[in-house]
## 1
Amino acid sequence: MMLSKITPVRIVDRIEPCLAFWCDTLGYEKVDEVPHAGTLGFVILAGPGGTIMFQTRASLAEDLPSVATRKPELVLYAECTSLDAVKKALRGAEVLVDERTTFYGMRETVVVDPQGAIVIFAEKHAAKQ
């Protein structure tokens, strides 16, 4: 079970106020965005220190209600080479979403680590590679 990348996902009320700080002040660039209800619902920013994602609480509630009910401030997004191997290794972990395939081509499972952090493990879906 090889993890290839872990990215923090900040859960916020609104994304737009974050952009001035991360883009204008720290030199990050918006590389992807998903609208939600007339505003930004999700963005990926890339910069000198790596990648950070932002998702609104409203977008999260629609996308992953079992995660949103926990009211997280931060979620970890862990890309892996084998979701099946991760799921096997995580037996006994609290599972919020057993498995789903997203519109952006990832197979995902969502679990809670022993200290309560929410982790989304994701593998590129074979049909989307």
## 2
Amino acid sequence: MSAVTAEQKPTASQGGQVEVKPAELEGAVRDLNDYVQNLQRSLQFNIDEDSGHTIIRVVDANTDEVIRQIPSEEVLALARHIRSMDEGEQGLFLQEKV
């Protein structure tokens, strides 16, 4: 990736903004795209049937191993538990008025 040169560093008079030439920006975007392609990762978007939440998974393209999932399985399990309690099961939370 391209490094920021001395003439690109922000100054107080610029209000902290960096002025970048269009050709430099195109080069930086190209470098980022090349880097991401070399990561051998893919993104998968799904909907959890129980909760309706969108699930995003980062998957290794070679092994199909899930590297990261948002939200995690633990968060989805907690959401399912809370939903089941909301539907009438008594558990951790009580649904009585004081």
## 3
Amino acid sequence: MPTTTAPDQSLARFESLAKPRLDAGPAWLRTLREQALARFTDLGLPTRKDEEWRYTDPARLTQTQFTLDTGDVKVTREQVARFAIPGLDAHTLVFVNGRYVPDLSDLGSLPAGVTVLPLTEAFDKHRDRIEPHLAEEGEPSSKAFTALNAAMFDDGIFVHVAKDTTLDKPVVLLNVTTAAEPASAGRSPVMTNPRTLFLGDANAQATIIEHYVALDDSVYFTNAVTHVEAGPGAHLSHYLIEEESPNAYQLSTLLTEQARDSNVDSHTVLFGGALVRNNCNPRLNGEGGDCLVNGLYMGVDQQHMDNHMRVEHNAPHCDSRQFYKGVLNDRSHAVFSGRIRVANAAQKTDAKQTNANLLLSGDAEATTKPQLEIYADDVKCTHGATIGQIQDEAVFYLMARGVDRTSAHAMLVYAFAAESLERMKLEPVRQMLGKMILRRLPQGEMLENLLDY
């Protein structure tokens, strides 16, 4: 079992982990890291006394003692291959315990105007594009963790798509985490701090997929921060697929900034982890922007999944849509906290937020808190939330047509969850996720054959 510490000791423990990282990278980065560590110290670690953490107890995470990866873990191509997305032609970069591994990656040939580099290689050539984003804090309730990431990140990725350039193949960032081999007795769980910068200039088009996987059931902590910047007229897509160890902790923060007439869609699917917190903070800063925030989470056993949304409308004539669905079984617990904030200048805003939860067990629990914060007077904003179970009438309808009860139940759960997949443009991703959903359901194999997956 991981060693736990008191709150003050926990803060000091994270500080001690961060300090050796201050000198990692070029000289200019040290000042930024020092400032980030100071912010982290001032903010402190969250507790359930903080309103935005009221329904998620971070103590399990914050009181666990972690260590940083020492680079002694070896992963083979065969192990990585099992996480490939079937049928997807992509530029793939593999990270093991937070470190980029070129021998396992397949970047391929990039079109002119596209740059894809590990951050450690991009610092010197692209400092002017990287430095301003490393201090970004993202969603307010998780500032401490984004600051900790800025102070500690070991590696990451820089993706830049130039003006009027289309990247026709997605960039896949496969983040693999595993325990040290051979396992060291008494060794603390590893902590990684992935950092992703995804920048699209005017009229750029591109897609990135962050895929988090585990090779074993070890305890570890992934503290990921992703910054997406869409220039005027850009169309950018971001996917996050989370398949962490059932004993892992993951906290991911996505910050998107949109200029005039840009379009950003974000798709998040959560399957793994013991405690998962997904923070999403789109900012529509230019007139005519459009944003889609789409997500699905499926909890089993005693998993805890917390989705924290904050969509900021800062300019007029912008549209945003939030669609999040949860399927919860056993004693799992999900939290959805969604806020739409419309600034005074953001007239003609059209924003919608929905959260629907399906409980498959009497012990499963969902907490949902949709919120509107509106300072403009000419807007169209709606929100809604539901928590329910499979309707007996729907089950009876299928049984009356020759479907057994278990299969009918599985079909209805799949139909509920698969609606989230329909909003995704990449067919291979939809296919893979559809199979993953079915494999979590009774009679899933039968349905897989029926749906011709």
## 4
Amino acid sequence: DARLRALAPHAAAVLHALPEPPLASGAEVADPASGSPDEPAVFLDDQLRMMFMCAHPSLSPDGRVTLTLRTVGGLGVNEIARAFLTDRAAVAQRIVRAKQRLKESGARLEMPDEADLASRLEAVLEVLSLVFNEGHLAHGGEALVRASLCADALRLARLLVKHRATARPEVHALCATFCFAAARLPARVTTTGELVTLEEQDRSSWHPGLLAGGFRHLAEAADGSNLTRYHLQAEIESCHAAAGHASATDWPRIVRAYDALSRIAPSPVVAVNRAVAVGRARGAHEGWRALEQIANNKALAGYYPYHAARADALRRLGRASEAADALRRALSLDPVEPVRRFLALSLVGIEGA
């Protein structure tokens, strides 16, 4: 504690001196610290106009997010279905209904009044989060990472924190999450496109400017007393960002954040991630118990990360045959190609042991 008190002023100065760079997307991205918070041209961006239009109050919450992902976010119906852990037909119908409702409402391609921005902001933030997630871990295809999607989501989030009507703590929290995750993108795959797990990543290659930006946004997110899911997601990402090596990760703190996230915004994906964190913090037996508690959730039957998590827990418990079965199940769900190769190699290792 004494050492931390001595170093804190210097560390803060270094963090604030590091520039937060744009990601490689072909578009220039300004440092979020620059410019006025109510810069008049900040919402001339066509994507943001479309997103706020698609977040029209006449649409259901699911309709707002689904329509925006399809028309503005650049995601296909299959990708949206996987993101929502639902089937393609349900997503297609949701889009048709939302388009019809939007047409009937007479919505126009223009930014709503500032008074109406806040009511539409939650849908826009969810869309940005889902777009970034698809870029961070693609649901299909040959590439694990779609950096252009991550760059676009971060660019738009940075624009939101520059406008007085949307520069809210939860938007800063979302920016922090994006910065922390984007900092790791170069380390997530090898030069040949193979998956590198978080534990095995070369942390010296994590981008210091983006990490610094993440901590700056996290500090801004602490304003006020409202705790959102975006705050908790940023908290989880900050635990990874602050760990100099995998063994230094504060897994108990991550579990506590997932516990709170499960209360604020429960979902099957959060439940799986929490179970993985429990396994790291409290051991394989507790992690397996957490996975078993959600085994009856039908939405997880077609979610390959759940079966991959089961395989890892079973392997750590010495139950090789069951672990192999779980890996085969994960492989049958057609994960993105680098993940498929990683899981197949893991299966070979278990079968050959």
